[in-house]
What does this fold into?
Amino acid sequence: MTEANYTDIAYETIDSAAVITLSRPKQMNAITAHMGIEVRHALARAEDDKNVVGIIITGAGKAFSAGADMKALQQIGQAGGLDEFNKNKQHNESELHANPGNLDVPEGFSKGTYSFFASISKPIIAAVNGPVAGAAMSIILSADMRFFGTSGFVTSSFPQRGMVAELGISWVLPKIVGPDNALDILWSSRKIFGNEAKELKLATRVYPDEDLLEESVVYINHLAENCSPVSIATMKGQVYRDLFRDPTESFKEAHRITKAALKTEDFIEGVKSFMEGRKPHFPRIGRD
It folds into this structure.
């Protein structure tokens, strides 16, 4: 995947992590269609990079993202809806065309605006450094894990704008926090900060603001130093596929995958490194 001159995001690598930063700080990183295209391209770039073991998505400045860009929403309303808006808006995005996602996951994931994160063969952490409002909830809910800074919070804001739970939020959120808490979050639009988010299982971990990005990188580096990237990718695919399966199907696939894993070089290296008391050396995922 070639490099690109991004305008709405920033991309960098820190050790074994790719860091994608939503970067429209004057607009509190409000989401635009172009930003979504750039995020997709950056994820493909990270997935292809063998030096990258995991991916972190965060926001520039004091916000993660204020949600959909209000000017764009106003234009959609004036155009008579999203379909009419898209007819009237021409995009020249050919140089940013990307089709990331090497994992076999249900079509509902792979076709979604952000739910395709489930098909990315590397871990994705949303580092929530500030407000996450409205449509931006879909970004962090689509990540594999959510690390909150103490200033990070979620607020749905949908009913305050005459909107509904979009982009698959009504499917994902109840599975994480339960239907009652999901409805409370969506209806009340109150601010859910890190510690409460942790209690609700919305946050995986909570860190001081100044440590958030560093700790996110530390987590990815730990995986890089100790774990097989292929094993990580395989288990990610298992988890997301099993959301749609009954136990019998899940156990059958686990048995089949386990038998295959026992024949791999990664398995041999994992056992050998343990017996020799050293860190394992696993091949990375990506293109040469």
About this structure: The radius of gyration is 20 Å. Residues 228-276 form one domain. The mean pLDDT is 89. The CA atoms of residues 16 and 196 lie 30 Å apart.
